[in-house]
Amino acid sequence: MKVRDRGTIKWVSLMLPEHVEWLNEAFVEYRAKPLLDEQKMAEIDQTLKYAVQYRAPIEMTYYDDGEYRTVIGRLEKIDQWRGFILLQNEDGSKISVRDIIDVQLID
Question: By the 8 A CB rule, do 48 and 78 touch?
């Protein structure tokens, strides 16, 4: 008599949808911080300077503990000595200059 094992299929029916959702949230893929080349850093610098001078709204993508986050707002302050920028939005986001990945002007 040969035993036919169904592998993990036998356990899937015991999992509730809430459990599957919780597992998907718990095991988020970790992303490494991207390295920016000099051209991209210069482009980000020019966009930030323009946004400060003309109070233009921007969309900024930055790195935060393995995740890429995006915020929208107006640039309130760039503190080069401490290495952060302050964004005027509902959160009052304070973002490290080293963590910025991309900045785009919003029309």
Answer: yes
